[in-house]
Amino acid sequence: MAQTVSLSASPRQATGKGGARQARFRGKVPAVIYGHGREAQPLELEAKALEKALHGVEPASTIIELSVDGKTAKTLIREIQRHPIRPDIIHVDFFEIHASEKVKLKVPVHLVGNPDGVRNAGGVLDQVTREVEIEVLPENIPDRVELDVTTLKIGDSLHVRDLSIPNAKILTEAELTIATVVPPRAEEVAVPTPEAAAEVAEPELIRKVREGEEEEGEGGGAAEGGGGAPAKPEAKGAGGAAPAKAEKAEKPKGGKES
């Protein structure tokens, strides 16, 4: 059965965005109550009391006994607005309900058990649908719906039609999948291309010319003319042109290209 929580609220005189900001500045949460032909009535609640009341419960399926000016009304929370950055509640919509009238609401679906496909085949349990909409009398509102997934093997699924909710009509489409067991997700390993493999196998050898070798190259012509040890002549191909490989040799600093 649904849980019941009691809260106190007071009428809010200042309305609009300015009135809501003033209420939050005073540690209040602006709210509104409507339903059953009554005009929407602006309210405000203590922020700390509201957070404490909603802690550990399912707000959408919890009956709120809201006391306003000494009168108590049974309500359901239709919407909770929170701050975009902080977890603070900034506005609440309450919908008044009567014991003799059915209401439509969404209740959470909780999976129970460890699937066979997870235990014995390394599969992964994936919950696709986390809540369903029902129509029910207030006294029969469940706080949640449980679904046993113990027998599921890899590839098996459970749908909305497999749910059983006493004294309630399920409005969500019957064929909608709630949970399924999928095969284990293998990690993708990038396969190197033949070109990349060749680059790894045969890295280019880059040889840095030492300072002594640069000096030897710069003074090679003078040594040859002055009777010293001649520099090692460059190999030339046919027609006097140096081979393509020789062109890659690093030229001495300050030298001129022949």
Word description of this protein:
Helix content is about 20%, strand content about 35%. By secondary structure, it is of the alpha+beta class. Among the domains are: about 5-95, Ribosomal Protein L25, Chain P; about 105-180, RNA Polymerase Alpha Subunit, Chain A, domain 2 (Beta Complex). The protein has a six-stranded mixed beta barrel. A hairpin with a 2-residue loop joins strand 4 and strand 5. The longest helix has 10 residues, at about 15-25. About 15% of the residues are buried.
Structure keywords:
258 residues, Ribosomal Protein L25, Chain P, RNA Polymerase Alpha Subunit, Chain A, domain 2, 6-stranded mixed beta barrel, 19% helix, 34% strand, globular, disordered C terminus
CATH H-level superfamily of the domain at 4-97 = Ribosomal Protein L25, Chain P
Series of H and E elements: EHEEHEEEEHEEEEEEHHHH
Radius of gyration, CA atoms, in whole angstroms? 40 Å
CATH class of the domain at 4-97: Mainly Beta
> Which structural class fits the helix and strand makeup?
alpha+beta
Helix-residue proportion: 10-25%
Strand content: 25-35%
Basic shape = globular
Largest sheet: 6 strands, mixed, barrel
Q: Per CATH, which architecture of the domain at 4-97?
A: Beta Barrel
- Total number of helices: 7
Measure the end-to-end span. 98 Å
CATH topology of the domain at 4-97: Ribosomal Protein L25, Chain P
Note poorly predicted spans. Answer: 215-231, 235-258
Strand order of the largest sheet: 1-3-2-6-5-4
Mean pLDDT: 80
